[in-house]
Protein backbone atom coordinates (compact mmCIF):
# COMPACT_ATOMS: atom_id res chain seq x y z
CA UNK A 1 0.00 0.00 0.00
CA UNK A 2 1.48 3.32 -1.08
CA UNK A 3 0.65 6.83 0.09
CA UNK A 4 -0.46 8.99 -2.86
CA UNK A 5 0.99 12.13 -1.25
CA UNK A 6 4.58 11.04 -0.55
CA UNK A 7 4.83 7.53 -2.04
CA UNK A 8 5.83 5.94 1.28
CA UNK A 9 4.97 2.21 1.28
CA UNK A 10 3.22 0.18 3.98
CA UNK A 11 2.59 -3.53 4.43
CA UNK A 12 -0.97 -2.94 5.68
CA UNK A 13 -3.69 -0.60 4.45
CA UNK A 14 -4.52 0.45 8.03
CA UNK A 15 -0.94 1.69 8.48
CA UNK A 16 -1.21 3.77 5.33
CA UNK A 17 -4.55 5.25 6.38
CA UNK A 18 -3.07 6.26 9.74
CA UNK A 19 -0.01 7.71 8.00
CA UNK A 20 -2.16 9.87 5.70
CA UNK A 21 -3.29 11.92 8.72
CA UNK A 22 0.18 13.49 8.59
CA UNK A 23 -0.72 15.12 5.28
CA UNK A 24 -4.23 16.23 6.26
CA UNK A 25 -3.49 17.29 9.87
CA UNK A 26 -6.58 15.26 10.78
CA UNK A 27 -6.66 14.18 14.43
CA UNK A 28 -9.74 11.97 14.80
CA UNK A 29 -8.91 10.44 18.20
CA UNK A 30 -9.99 12.88 20.93
CA UNK A 31 -9.17 12.77 24.63
CA UNK A 32 -12.40 12.89 26.64
CA UNK A 33 -10.59 14.60 29.54
CA UNK A 34 -9.07 17.61 27.75
CA UNK A 35 -10.22 17.45 24.12
CA UNK A 36 -6.73 17.15 22.62
CA UNK A 37 -6.74 15.34 19.27
CA UNK A 38 -4.39 12.59 18.05
CA UNK A 39 -3.65 10.95 14.72
CA UNK A 40 -3.83 7.39 16.07
CA UNK A 41 -5.32 5.49 18.99
CA UNK A 42 -1.90 4.51 20.39
CA UNK A 43 -0.97 8.16 20.85
CA UNK A 44 -4.30 8.83 22.56
CA UNK A 45 -3.82 5.91 24.96
CA UNK A 46 -0.31 7.11 25.80
CA UNK A 47 -1.62 10.65 26.39
CA UNK A 48 -4.39 9.44 28.71
CA UNK A 49 -1.75 8.23 31.19
CA UNK A 50 -1.13 11.90 31.97
CA UNK A 51 -4.67 12.22 33.32
CA UNK A 52 -4.66 8.91 35.22
CA UNK A 53 -1.37 9.65 36.95
CA UNK A 54 0.06 6.28 35.90
CA UNK A 55 3.80 6.36 35.21
CA UNK A 56 4.87 3.01 33.75
CA UNK A 57 8.21 4.17 32.27
CA UNK A 58 11.02 4.15 34.86
CA UNK A 59 14.61 5.29 34.52
CA UNK A 60 17.02 2.48 35.40
CA UNK A 61 19.64 4.99 36.56
CA UNK A 62 17.64 6.96 39.13
CA UNK A 63 14.20 5.27 39.37
CA UNK A 64 12.33 8.42 38.26
CA UNK A 65 9.06 7.48 36.50
CA UNK A 66 7.25 9.01 33.54
CA UNK A 67 3.82 8.70 31.94
CA UNK A 68 5.26 8.63 28.41
CA UNK A 69 8.24 6.78 26.97
CA UNK A 70 9.34 9.87 25.04
CA UNK A 71 9.65 11.75 28.34
CA UNK A 72 11.82 8.96 29.76
CA UNK A 73 14.06 9.03 26.69
CA UNK A 74 14.49 12.81 27.00
CA UNK A 75 15.26 12.43 30.73
CA UNK A 76 17.91 9.76 30.11
CA UNK A 77 20.02 12.31 28.24
CA UNK A 78 20.80 13.78 31.67
CA UNK A 79 22.64 10.58 32.60
CA UNK A 80 24.45 10.07 29.30
CA UNK A 81 25.43 13.71 28.85
CA UNK A 82 24.36 13.46 25.22
CA UNK A 83 23.48 16.76 23.54
CA UNK A 84 22.01 15.86 20.15
CA UNK A 85 20.99 19.42 19.18
CA UNK A 86 23.90 21.60 18.08
CA UNK A 87 24.00 25.26 17.06
CA UNK A 88 25.37 25.60 13.52
CA UNK A 89 26.80 29.02 14.33
CA UNK A 90 28.80 28.37 17.51
CA UNK A 91 28.76 24.59 18.00
CA UNK A 92 27.13 24.69 21.45
CA UNK A 93 25.16 21.51 22.21
CA UNK A 94 21.77 21.07 23.89
CA UNK A 95 19.76 18.14 25.21
CA UNK A 96 16.45 19.54 23.91
CA UNK A 97 15.51 21.15 20.60
CA UNK A 98 13.56 23.85 22.45
CA UNK A 99 16.74 24.96 24.25
CA UNK A 100 18.54 25.23 20.92
CA UNK A 101 15.70 27.35 19.51
CA UNK A 102 15.87 29.69 22.53
CA UNK A 103 19.64 30.01 22.04
UniProtKB/TrEMBL annotation:
Primary location class: nucleus
Molecular function as annotated in GO: DNA-binding transcription factor activity, RNA polymerase II-specific; RNA polymerase II cis-regulatory region sequence-specific DNA binding; zinc ion binding
SMART domains linked to this entry: ZnF_C2H2
Subcellular location: Nucleus
Entry keywords, A to Z: DNA-binding, Metal-binding, Nucleus, Repeat, Transcription, Transcription regulation, Zinc, Zinc-finger
Assigned GO CC terms: nucleus
Positions of the C2H2-type domain: 1-28, 29-56, 57-84, 85-103
Family per similarity comment: Belongs to the krueppel C2H2-type zinc-finger protein family.
Function: May be involved in transcriptional regulation.
Protein name as it appears in the record: ZN397 protein
GN (gene name): Znf397_1
